[in-house]
Amino acid sequence: MKIPEDGKLLRVFIGEADKWQGRPLYEAIVHLAKKEGMAGATAIKGFLGFGCKSHLHTTKFLELSTDLPVVIEIVDSEEKITKFLPLLEPMVKEGLVTLEKANVILYRAG
Which residue, among 90, 79, 100, has the nearest Cα to 20 in the 3D structure? Predict the structure, then answer.
């Protein structure tokens, strides 16, 4: 698979406890990206963060959060990202979705 050098980076900021049809939302988004033929998707769990409600979520021992921040990153062509966005929109009830230019330097399988 080839990604154009001038790709797009889609970032989805959600909480670890967010659900979609009974499963973790981050898992559902990554599986949907795979089903839709996206070049790749990665879910990254944060250890500290807050969102629009300003609730601090942390991994500190005495304040262990069950809703840590999760960021899903997807890089692909602008065309494929644009087709993916309408599928993503109903899934994210709370969170942040950003889109930015990505200069793809290298993408290959070993």
Answer: 90
Please state, in angstroms and rounded to a whole number, the distance separating the CA atoms of residues 17 and 5: 35
Per-residue pLDDT at 92: 97
Q: Where are the alpha helices (DSSP H) in 11-64?
A: 25-35
Predicted model pTM: 0.88
Mean pLDDT, residues 45-61? 73
Burial string for 44-68 (b: 16+ CB within 10 Å, else e) reads eeeeebeeeeeeebbeeeeeebeeb
With respect to CATH, is domain 6-102 assigned 3.30.70.120? Answer: yes
On whether the CB atoms of residues 11 and 110 are closer than 8 A, the answer is no
Q: Which residue has the tokens 């979609």?
A: 20
Residue carrying structure tokens 């080839």: 2
